[in-house]
Amino acid sequence: MGDKPIWEQIGSSFIQHYYQLFDNDRTQLGAIYIDASCLTWEGQQFQGKTAIVEKLSSLPFQKIQHSITAQDHQPTPDSCIISMVVGQLKADEDPIMGFHQMFLLKNINDAWVCTNDMFRLALHNFG
C-alpha cells in the first residue's frame, strides 16, 4: 500500500470501512458523517448526521452485501478527497443490482469524515 498516493490509501480505507459498517450495522454510520453532511439517495436529499442515519437505517431490507467493482480517488485543491465507487449489491433475496456512489471526504480534527455522499442504483428505466 505504500506505493499508492496518500489520498488513494485514505480513500480505499474509508470505502472498506463504510461498506463494512453498511453491510453489518447501518446505525453505526453516524460516526462518519457530521451535522453539515449532505446525502443524495436516489435523488432524495438529506442533510445532517441524524437525517442521513435515519434514511440509511430505514431502507427496506434486512440484509445487504456490497461488492466493489472499481473505486477511484482524487485529491481536491482544498485538501479533501473525492471518491467514486462502482459496484454491485444484493439486498435480501432481490436480484443483484449495480450501483454508483460518490463521497467527498474531509479531514476534521484528525479524522476523515464524509461531507457529501451521492448514491444511485445503476437502473435504466426508459419508459
TrEMBL record:
InterPro entries: NTF2, NTF2-like_dom_sf, NTF2_dom, Nuclear_transport_factor_2_euk. GO terms for biological process: mRNA transport; protein import into nucleus. The keyword Transmembrane helix does not apply. It is found in: Cytoplasm; Nucleus; Nucleus inner membrane; Nucleus outer membrane. The keyword Transport applies. PROSITE patterns: NTF2_DOMAIN. One of its GO terms (cellular component) is nuclear inner membrane. Keywords: Cytoplasm, mRNA transport, Nuclear pore complex, Nucleus, Protein transport, Translocation, Transport. It comes from the Eukaryota. Residues 10-121 form the NTF2 domain. Mediates the import of GDP-bound RAN from the cytoplasm into the nucleus which is essential for the function of RAN in cargo receptor-mediated nucleocytoplasmic transport. Thereby, plays indirectly a more general role in cargo receptor-mediated nucleocytoplasmic transport. Interacts with GDP-bound RAN in the cytosol, recruits it to the nuclear pore complex via its interaction with nucleoporins and promotes its nuclear import. Has a role in nuclear-cytoplasmic transport of proteins and mRNAs. Homodimer. Interacts with RAN (GDP-bound form); the interaction is direct and regulates RAN nuclear import. Interacts with the nucleoporins NUP54, NUP58 and NUP62 (via FG repeats); recruits NUTF2 to the nuclear pore complex a step required for NUTF2-mediated GDP-bound RAN nuclear import. Interacts with CAPG; mediates its nuclear import. This is Nuclear transport factor 2.
